């Protein structure tokens, strides 16, 4: 270790020669360093994309290092949905504002759930392989590179030692070949020179032996490191596959978000005209619920085919619409011959009166639409029971 450190210091000071690696090996090293640097940047920025909150990222990092399960965290969309639902309950779920809050809140809940699924898929299919490379393969490569560096320093130190030994041997040989002067005061210098030449010859042989050993170790380590560096190509192929999976999961996520928002826009658009044209006027004149629309909206008609149209008298504020009331009485209507659908109940619902049907979460019922009904309601049937049910509490099945 001391010899290697001395060699390293002399190289930095420009006082020692250095064994250079071939151009192909240097290219592999540069490619590996580039892969490592960009993988780190992509990993960090993807983590920021999936979790913008730095405190939450630090918390998740600590849980991973402690090998503990990361606690489930509510997404922003799910939290907003919770607030909207609670607000609707306070304002009244039957009011226009309350009904709209429930619709938007349900969509936000779906968006939050989609976001959670996307984050989970991206973490498993994209972040985990990148992190495994940095914490696994790259650490192995770095370790072998450090060993190769030490082997190279040992090799260069042996080369320097052999060079010095050969120079000293040559100098001693020159002094031994000179004709001795027996008249000098110290004639034994000639004998000492001959002895020194023999000693340096032994030193040269020893240095050559050490050089062969270190050269063998260096070549072996260089081959190991080269194979690991060439494995970077396989890493690129694996990361390419993971990148495709990341894009696919992100595409599915945004497609879900678009579909949810499109459905919400249609729901809100079906009642927008009623809200801004007649609802507030009716509320200003009377606290009673607004009269039913004279015809079903386009969205409801497309979703659930209705029974043949029954003439409906136009609604006048303050005057009951007897025809519409008779049509919307669940106990007196019959389901259409075609156009009924199955629906899954999302939440428990308590009937407000005898015309409504109480619901239990996750149960399946049959639903259909009638002309003249409020677009936010459907007729629901469960066995022999029949009554009006709110659309926002249902998931319509194809």
Automatic annotation (TrEMBL):
Coiled coil: none annotated. Residues 10-277 form the BAR domain. It is found in: Cytoplasm; Golgi apparatus membrane; Mitochondrion outer membrane. One of its GO terms (biological process) is membrane organization. Residues 338-398 form the SH3 domain. Keywords: Apoptosis, Coiled coil, Cytoplasm, Golgi apparatus, Membrane, Mitochondrion, Mitochondrion outer membrane, SH3 domain. It is a peripheral membrane protein. SUPFAM superfamilies: BAR/IMD domain-like, SH3-domain. PROSITE patterns: BAR (PS51021), SH3 (PS50002). Pfam families: BAR (PF03114), SH3_9 (PF14604). InterPro entries: AH/BAR_dom_sf, BAR_dom, Endophilin_SH3RF, SH3-like_dom_sf, SH3_domain, SH3GLB_SH3. GO terms for cellular component: Golgi membrane; mitochondrial outer membrane. Belongs to the endophilin family. Homodimer, and heterodimer with SH3GLB1. This is Endophilin-B1. The gene is Sh3glb2.
């Amino acid at each position: 270790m001391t010899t290697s450190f001395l060699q390293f210091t002399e190289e930095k000071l420009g006082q020692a020669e250095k064994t250079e690696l071939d151009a192909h090996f240097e290219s592999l090293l540069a490619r590996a360093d580039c892969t490592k640097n960009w993988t780190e940047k992509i990993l960090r920025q993807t983590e920021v994309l999936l979790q913008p909150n730095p405190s939450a990222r630090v918390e998740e990092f600590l849980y991973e290092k402690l090998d503990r399960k990361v606690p489930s965290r509510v997404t922003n969309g799910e939290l907003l949905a919770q607030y909207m639902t609670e607000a609707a309950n306070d304002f009244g779920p039957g009011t226009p504002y309350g009904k709209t809050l429930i619709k938007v809140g349900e969509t936000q809940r779906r968006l939050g759930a989609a976001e959670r699924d996307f984050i989970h898929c991206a973490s498993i299919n994209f972040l985990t392989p990148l992190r495994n490379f940095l914490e696994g393969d790259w650490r192995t490569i770095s370790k072998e590179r450090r060993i190769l560096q030490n082997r190279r320093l040992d090799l260069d130190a042996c080369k320097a030692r052999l060079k010095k030994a050969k120079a000293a041997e040559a100098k001693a040989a020159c002094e031994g070949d000179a004709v001795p002067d027996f008249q000098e005061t110290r004639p034994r210098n000639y004998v000492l020179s001959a002895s020194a030449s023999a000693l340096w010859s032994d030193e040269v042989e020893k240095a050559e032996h050490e050089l062969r050993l270190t050269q063998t170790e260096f070549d072996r380590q260089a081959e190991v490191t080269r194979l690991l560096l060439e494995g970077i190509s396989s890493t690129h192929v694996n990361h390419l596959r993971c990148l495709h999976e990341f894009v696919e999961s992100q595409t599915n996520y945004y497609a879900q978000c678009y579909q949810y928002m499109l459905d919400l826009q249609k729901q809100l658009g079906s009642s927008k005209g009623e809200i801004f044209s007649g609802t507030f006027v009716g509320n200003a004149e009377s606290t009673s619920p607004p009269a039913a629309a004279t015809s079903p909206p386009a969205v409801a008609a497309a979703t659930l085919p209705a029974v043949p149209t029954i003439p409906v008298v136009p609604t006048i504020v303050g005057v009951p619409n007897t025809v519409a009331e008779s049509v919307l009485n669940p106990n007196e209507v019959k389901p259409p011959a075609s156009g009924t659908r199955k629906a899954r109940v999302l939440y428990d619902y308590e009937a407000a009166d005898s015309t409504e049907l109480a619901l239990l979460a996750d149960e399946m019922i049959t639903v259909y639409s009638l002309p003249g009904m409020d677009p936010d309601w459907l007729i629901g049937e469960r066995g022999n029971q029949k009554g009006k049910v709110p659309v926002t509490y249902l998931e319509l099945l194809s």
